[in-house]
Amino acid sequence: MSNILFLQNTISELQGVMYLSRKLKDAGHHVHLLISGKKNRVLQYIDENNIGLVCFSLMYGHQFWATAITRIIKAQKPEIKILWGGIFPTFNVDYLLEVGCVDAFCIGEGENVIVPLVESVLADKKPETLKGVAYIQEGRIKENELCNYTDIENLIPDRDLYFGYSVLRKNPAKIFVASRGCIGSCSYCYNSKVKDLYKDNPNPYVRSRSPDSMLEEIQYVKNNYGLKRIFFYDDILIFNKTLAFEFLPRLKSKINAPYMCYTRPDLINEEITKLLKQTGCYMVSFGLESGNEELRMQVLNKRISNETIIKAADIIKRNKLAFNTTNMMGFPHETYRMGLETIELNIRIGAIGSCNILNPFPGTQLYEYCKNNNLFEENYFKQARTQIHYYPLIKNPDRNALGNLERLFQLAVFFPHTMYPLVKRIAKFRPNFFFDLIFLSLQFIYIKFFTERYSLKFMLRYYSEKMKSVFGHQYN
What we know:
It is built from 19 helices and 15 strands. The protein has helices at 15-26, 39-48, 63-76, 87-91, 95-99, 114-122, 166-169, 191-197, 211-225, 241-254, 270-278, 293-299, 306-318, 336-349, 365-372, 399-414, 420-426, 433-450, 456-471, and strands at residues 3-8, 30-35, 53-57, 81-85, 104-106, 133-137, 140-143, 173-176, 179-180, 207-208, 229-232, 259-263, 281-289, 322-329, 352-357.
């Protein structure tokens, strides 16, 4: 059978890739993974392993790197087939023509089509009858109808694929995903657009894997690669209360490892919080996004009040669970005062929090709003997106001050009595190297010692990208 390569340039485990790899291996194909952005290393690996097809799984922002390396591969090895899949190709089918040399895009969820698509492309056949595929024919894009949602109940991902890299294999915190989809419809997130994409599908968008399949996967990883902590990367682990009460006690009994998970403030109550505490949860995380309630509800379409957030935090603290919030700066029409409200609400509830810059993804409601109201800076569409944070690219009189608040967010929240008064005074300074160093240092401490608690080796590898951004950053 064929040798298939999944190629990426960031040191992270992509759940979708693991599912696709499992499907391909079950069909008899040999699946490889290379984490490298260096063209010579990529070309060498293709030669050494007799690779016939290269696959990319892409979020928005990664298309710049993927385009460059795709063109290099095709120019030097035109016989190699190339497929793109993921969120970016799904909502940017027209990019097929811009790249010009990708054999096909996999649109939507790919597990049901990946095997026939790979075999069709390798056989030099146009995937005319395959659902969930877009391709070029006679200079025009042909986009087939979508596949149905993937039944993930008993689907177990290929965990061996990424653990060929020692930095991931030896990391004591292992990532797992027990569900797919989100019950929310936030304007900045792709979930609402994916729901729209599948609006005629009769099956539920938010799905869970069975407790048996989850426990089998976790036990396999524990036995073969070891784990000390579990990080559930679901949008919301406990959205299905019945499954939570079935799965989490069994997780405690069989695996007995501390875990971290995401939830929503409006799902937090005494009963579910006690369950989390009793089954080994050491931290829960939820999206606060903005401390300004009107902005959160009207602009972000996140219908959660400040009162609900405060109540949820009180319940979590009363049950002696640590909790983390995720926040953003740089929203349309956000003012400096609104940014301070975000910091102040985090201080009010006693959160361990993180903050990012808003990056409106094409296809989302918020992106369309920004585009229609001419809110994007000119270079927004040309700038690569990685895991690096950068100053807001949405037009805003308080742009630099909001960017500085993002950099100084953790300084203010971690040390509210001493540092927050200082942050309010200096956040209106020009962006500078010192603020970036504060940001990176506190982010490192936050992830290493409070939330994911990754190994030092993984953290150094992961943060090498962020350090490059500090030393190569251009300040306005």
